[in-house]
Design goal:
The complex is a heterodimer of chains A (about 250) and B (about 325). Chain A is an all-alpha fold and about 250 residues long. Chain A contains 10 helices and no strands. Chain B has 2 domains: about 220 residues, Rossmann fold (3-Layer(aba) Sandwich), CATH 3.40.50.300; about 70 residues, YebC, transcriptional regulation domain (Alpha-Beta Plaits). A 6-stranded mixed sheet of chain B has the order 6-7-8-3-9-10, with helices on both faces. Chain B has a 4-stranded antiparallel sheet with strand order 2-1-4-5, covered by helices on one side. A 4-stranded antiparallel sheet of chain B has the order 12-13-11-14, covered by helices on one side. The mean pLDDT of chain B is about 85. The chains are: A mainly alpha (about 250), B alpha/beta (about 325).
Chain lengths: ~250, ~325
């Protein structure tokens, strides 16, 4: 536990010091929220989902913020590899599992903090949270998304030599996961043939879970959401730990 | 006498490249031991295996009596290592880097804090303890890394090219630190270097390594004395003729190279005029003549037939070829 905590602390220290990173990774979901939200609010009709488009968009943007930040935190291992710091950790008499879990905990925490900022900003542009339990539920889903995708980032970083493949991963893995997740539109409005694809996307369950917590309405049962994203985070942690164990420098 | 390290037939292959080729030697407790050789000779690979960062292809070694294959965690607890490339977190302060290390080695808080202050003072960084490492110069970073490597009181400290890329003044400064450390703390220090002067100044014993093999191992003094006195280098377009002409009883050894001849002899300054006369009478042209005390560079030259720089150029070429081949 003490080692996991040590690595978590290092992640927190780095996070607090990188002001530009905090602002940088909050800006994209925030701009999406503002431009798409205000731009499409009067145009988009959401049959059966009550509220307006901005409120519909908030959970998606929170999930986006958590996911992008966590993937990025996981992939940071590559920088540690390139700048040599990873050696310092790997040559210490600690297990790789502890290092990986510490990194996951650190990445998930920063990601949830980033998502939380979007959540707070959303309160000023139309989101009403009346239910404390629902709010906490949303937080739980944010944590699960954070763990899943930090571990995912670590898994990728363990197999990559440098940052050159990062753009590829962003465009062909991360962005489709985000786009298909129902963060921007209700799943039910998609053509029937594409719905199964969205249901294969783990982030869908994260977004729906947060949506249920914040607005009380979702298209997938929150229990199913919890089971899927919970299972996914566990699976990713195991895969990430396995691949990280084999990392060579 | 206790051994800090015992190395037996240690070998490491990278595909078909033999980076470390069946090396065996022992290092005594409290020694400053140098692995000297050109880049790509296998120094870092050897160090990585001893520090359990790399598994040997074959052979064995013990560090503080602990087997590197059977108990890598035990080895890791008892060694400190300063890598060739920097391994600090630049976003953290000097203190935070030390603290992180102390926590990883599970040093209790009070002892940790006390030792960090003590070590930062030793490397003269205590007044900069709360500064971000990014603002540190190369020499300061190196000193911080050495301090960090000592934090958990290792019995053996590995230094991989500790002064690479530093200016001569900082290098001198670091040498003093390392020598003091070994004396005061009684730890065994194993360093790799391709600076001959560094090995000569610092090390009690030196192993010269080339193409993954140990080609000589002794004290710097014995290695140099082995060359047989002073060295006279005679530049000439016809080195073979020079060598043939110098078959005199006072000449200890003659080495012929492509455009010069190196002659070993005692009290060389008294014989320079004799050499010149001898060569002149036989009408052998001389382009230059220099006398110097032997250095480890000369030792390397006499064992490999190449200077360390020539060897490096050749090995880089080999490496490049090898990498190209692996790509295809």
């Amino acid at each position: 536990m003490d080692i996991i905590y040590t690595i978590w602390v290092r992640n927190m220290l780095r996070y607090i010091r990188s002001k530009s990173r905090i602002i940088g990774s909050i800006s994209m979901p925030l701009f999406f929220l503002l431009f798409l939200g205000f731009g499409l609010n009067s145009v988009v009709q959401l049959p059966g989902l009550g509220g307006n488009y901005i409120v519909f968009l908030v959970p998606g943007m929170v999930a986006m913020s958590v996911m992008f930040t966590s993937v990025f935190s996981g992939i940071q291992i590559i920088w540690d590899k390139q700048f040599g710091f990873l050696k310092e950790t790997l040559v210490a008499p600690v297990s790789r599992l502890e290092i990986m879990l510490g990194q996951t905990a650190g990445g998930a925490t920063t990601a949830v903090l980033q998502g939380f900022m979007i959540l707070v900003i959303s309160l000023f542009i139309g989101l009403h949270v009346s239910d404390a339990a629902g709010f906490l539920l949303a937080l739980v889903f944010m944590v699960l998304i954070g763990i899943s995708f930090t571990a995912f980032g670590i898994a990728i970083a363990s197999r990559m030599e440098d940052m050159t493949g990062f753009q590829l991963i962003m465009n062909f893995v991360i962005f489709p996961i985000f786009g298909l997740s129902g963060a921007l539109f209700p799943i039910s409005s998609l053509p029937a043939w594409i719905v199964p694809v969205t249901l294969l996307d783990p982030l869908t369950y994260g977004v729906e879970g947060i949506r249920y917590g914040l607005t009380g309405v979702s298209q997938i049962s929150p229990v199913v959401c919890f089971a899927v994203i919970g299972g996914f985070s566990l699976a990713m942690t195991i895969i990430g730990a396995f691949l990280f164990r084999k990392i060579t420098i | 006498m206790t051994f800090a390290l015992q190395i037996k037939n240690l070998t490491r292959h990278f595909n078909d490249l033999v980076a470390v080729d069946n090396i065996s030697f022992d290092i005594l407790q409290g020694e400053i031991f140098g692995l000297l050789g050109p880049n790509g000779a296998g120094k870092t690979t050897t160090l990585s295996m001893l520090a359990t960062m790399l598994t040997p292809t074959s052979g064995s070694a013990t560090v503080n009596g602990i087997d590197i294959k059977k108990d890598p965690d035990g080895v890791r607890k008892s060694i400190g290592i300063v890598f060739q490339d920097q391994s600090l977190d630049e976003e953290l302060t000097a203190w935070e880097n030390m603290d992180f290390h102390g926590r990883l080695y599970r040093i209790p808080k009070e002892i940790r804090n006390q030792r960090i202050t003590e070590l930062l003072t030793l490397v003269e960084l205590n007044d900069r303890r709360n500064d971000i490492v990014k603002t540190f110069s190369g020499g300061m970073r190196r000193r911080l890394e050495i301090a960090r490597g000592l934090l958990h009181h290792p019995a053996v400290l590995f230094l991989d090219e500790p002064t690479l890329g530093l200016d001569p003044q900082t290098r001198n400064h670091l040498w003093q630190y390392i020598a003091t450390l070994a004396k005061e703390k009684g730890i065994t220090i194993i360093l790799t270097t391709h600076y001959m002067e560094e090995a000569d100044r610092l090390c009690n014993r030196v192993a010269i390594i080339d193409h993954g093999k140990i080609i000589a191992i002794d004290t710097p003094k014995n290695l140099k004395d082995g060359l047989g006195g002073d060295l006279v280098t005679i530049g000439s377009p016809d080195p073979a003729a020079v060598a043939a002409a110098l078959k005199e009883p006072w000449v200890v050894r003659v080495e012929t190279h492509t455009d010069n001849v190196v002659v070993s002899l005692k009290n060389a300054d008294q014989y320079v005029s004799s050499i010149v006369t001898l060569l002149n009478t036989r009408q052998i042209p001389i382009t230059s003549i220099t006398i110097h005390k032997p250095t480890l560079e000369d030792v390397f030259l006499s064992f490999t037939g190449k200077t360390i720089r020539e060897q490096e150029a050749g090995q880089k070429e080999n490496m490049r070829m090898h990498i190209k081949m692996m790509r295809h």
